[in-house]
Amino acid sequence: MNNASTWQLLSAIMRRDLAVALRRRSDIINPLLFVVIVVTLFPLAVGPGPDILGRIATGVIWVAALLSALLGSERLFRDDFLDGNLEQLVLLPAPLPVLALGKISVHWLLSGLPLVILAPLCALLLKLPIDAWGILMLTLLIGTPMLSAMTAVGAALTVSLGRGGALLSLLLLPLFIPLLIFAAAAVESTLVGTSAYGHVLLLAGLMLLTLTLAPLAVAAAIRVSVN
């Protein structure tokens, strides 16, 4: 199959997924509301002191982002599995990893990109120094595609299970730990006046590795699930 036909199929699948997701707006809004609620309530628990909040702001935002990625993640492939579309995806005359990357991209557009846009509001609520806002948004811009990719891998592995939400969380949370460490370290470096360049490069390397391997893992998991 030539590249033009593959691109046409990929575009059609992405447009379909976007249309389906926009009809279920609660699936898009609920994770964002979760992040806003966590960020809003956290100062009430630890106190409004800007020194304390500013130091823990990055961790709070990233933990909220990680947990929000798990909300509804088991439905990433579940509906397609139940109505037979997942089997048709395997039978399409196009590389399945490429199609999986398209579904990951749609998931990021609907869940990761809004988090990046929402980051300045979260930083303001948690009194993160404005000098660190840029690096926070950069880490989210680099890290959220990894969240979508790893979530897709977990969702594909558990799609044939009746209730795979708990198992999905157990599979994904250990994978999120390096991302959380490097993202928090990058912002912390900015706060203490040192360069965050090394941490950002590590994040970028992890993102490239994840986006290279995750579609292959998703494709393999989907083939196992539909057979």
UniProtKB/TrEMBL annotation:
It is found in: Cell inner membrane. GO terms for biological process: cytochrome c biosynthetic process; cytochrome complex assembly. InterPro entries: Cyt_c_biogenesis_CcmB (IPR003544), Cyt_c_CcmB_bac (IPR026031). It is a multi-pass membrane protein. GO terms for molecular function: heme transmembrane transporter activity. The chain crosses the membrane at residues 28-46, 52-72, 106-126, 132-159, 166-187, 199-222. Keywords: Cell inner membrane, Cell membrane, Cytochrome c-type biogenesis, Membrane, Transmembrane, Transmembrane helix, Transport. It holds the Pfam family CcmB. It comes from the Bacteria. One of its GO terms (cellular component) is plasma membrane. Belongs to the CcmB/CycW/HelB family. Required for the export of heme to the periplasm for the biogenesis of c-type cytochromes. This is Heme exporter protein B. It comes from Pseudidiomarina donghaiensis. The lineage of its organism: Bacteria, Pseudomonadati, Pseudomonadota, Gammaproteobacteria, Alteromonadales.
